[in-house]
Write a structure and sequence with these properties.
Elements: H1 3-22, H2 27-40, E1 48-52, H3 58-64, E2 69-74, H4 77-89, E3 95-98, E4 111-117, H5 126-136, E5 137-148, E6 156-161, E7 167-173, E8 182-186, H6 193-196, E9 202-206, H7 211-220, E10 224-229, H8 235-240, E11 253-259
Helix pairs in contact: 1-4
Length: 263
């Protein structure tokens, strides 16, 4: 599957995704994944940053709130329309650009850092994206991205629960089967059932890679890995947000920070 087809899928997803994520139904993002990502993010105050696959801009704005001068890039015009409308209502100095990660419309060495919140695993040519990210980074700059954990969320994953419904184990399969645009369909599970029946599920092309492949692609792109993160919900967060309790059994997300050498 090529980038153009991926863009068509995400454009069809964008309106419903924006509606329900902004209504608080992306509980994994809001309760666990984004807070952990921001906790791992180095100081970006006064730096120039790019948010790759920015969607409707919620995470881009969170990084801008830390003092960064942000640009956001996405392949779906509807996502960008929502992001720009929010920027017009509450300016954070963010410039939103239509494009894909393979041919970033920026000059060499334009940014001090690049973020990618849960977007890299949905891109058709991750090696090409990483190479272009390396190009637009300044020497010493970094990329920090989050993805579904390749080891614990391969093409097949199933939570195993006890009699009370609490997650106690995870069944995984097909880890070594790398996929090239296999479409998964789902909606946020916290959307009320009557509303779920009225909505078309998201159709998300997925490009699963093993952990070995991710490390090889990062290194081949000329970046040096300096940090991994595997967010786990605390007991308090899991009690308040039971939907994320399965991350106490095994991680769902992997966070990676890699840096461009200074020379």
């Amino acid at each position: 599957m090529d980038a153009r087809t991926v863009a068509e899928h995400w454009e069809r997803n964008a309106e419903t995704w924006t509606k329900y994520s902004r209504a608080g139904h992306d509980r994994y993002r809001d309760a666990l994944n984004t807070p952990a990502f921001l906790a791992m993010l180095p100081d970006v105050n006064g730096l120039d940053g790019l948010d790759l696959g920015c969607g409707e801009g919620t995470n881009t704005r969170a990084v801008a709130a830390r003092g960064a001068r942000m640009s956001g890039l996405d392949i779906a015009p509807t996502f960008l329309a929502h992001a720009r409308a929010t920027e017009a209502e509450d300016p954070r100095g963010i410039d939103y650009v239509l494009g894909d990660g393979l041919t970033l419309p920026f000059a060499d060495a334009s940014f001090d850092f690049v973020t990618a919140f849960m977007s890299m695993m949905d891109m058709s040519d991750q090696q090409g994206v990483l190479k272009d990210v390396q190009r637009v980074l300044r020497p010493g700059g970094f990329l920090q991205f989050s993805i579904l954990h390749p080891c614990f969320v391969p093409p097949r994953r199933r939570n195993i629960r006890d009699a009370s419904g609490a997650p106690v184990a995870v069944e995984i399969a097909d880890y070594f089967r790398e996929t090239d645009g296999e479409v998964e369909t789902w909606l946020f599970s916290s959307i009320p059932e009557d509303e779920r029946r009225q909505q078309t599920p998201f159709a998300i092309p997925r490009f699963h890679r093993t952990l070995t492949s991710w490390v090889a692609m990062i290194v081949t792109a000329g970046l040096v890995i300096e940090a991994f993160g595997e967010p786990m919900a605390s007991e308090e967060v899991a009690a308040a947000e039971p939907i994320v309790a399965d991350t106490r059994v095994a991680p769902i997300f992997l966070h990676v920070r890699a840096r461009k050498p200074r020379s």
